[in-house]
Design brief:
Layout: H1 2-18, E1 22-24, E2 28-31, E3 34-37, E4 42-45, E5 48-51, E6 55-62, E7 75-81, E8 88-93, H2 96-112
Antiparallel strand pairs: 1-2, 2-3, 3-4, 4-5, 6-7, 7-8
């Protein structure tokens, strides 16, 4: 039983800190497995690279469960793309604040890479 608790705590800790740290310089922005290359005007999500202009939307959704009545702090940020094979990529955040900041940074990075304005 203790092992299950420890594994669960480690799992949720990793999810919590996964999207917190970001890096940005003159060449690129990286956070939560998403990379925007400013020079090439591209976005890479989960190993797939697209033109920044192919991003058609960014939205945040709450993860809900019946016992929490929709008050979950866990959020997903959905990156919508002009792509038939994979039109949506979801990024999970445990904290609402982290997801909101990620969306703001992503919007700035996409503009810098020649993409649309999502503010």
């Amino acid at each position: 039983m203790l092992i299950i608790i420890v594994v669960a705590v480690l799992f949720y800790s990793l999810l919590f800190f996964k999207g917190v740290h970001y890096t940005v310089d003159d060449r690129e922005f990286k956070q939560a497995g998403v990379r925007i290359n400013f020079a090439n005007n591209t976005i890479t999500v989960k190993g797939k690279t697209y033109r920044a202009g192919q991003v058609t939307g960014i939205r945040m959704d709450a993860l809900t469960s019946s016992h929490k009545h929709g008050n979950s702090m866990a959020k997903t940020v959905t990156i919508e793309l002009d792509d038939f094979k994979k039109p949506q990529h979801k990024i999970l955040f445990i904290s609402k604040g982290h997801s909101r900041k990620f969306m703001q940074r992503l919007s700035v990075a996409l503009r810098k890479a020649g993409g649309r304005d999502f503010v």
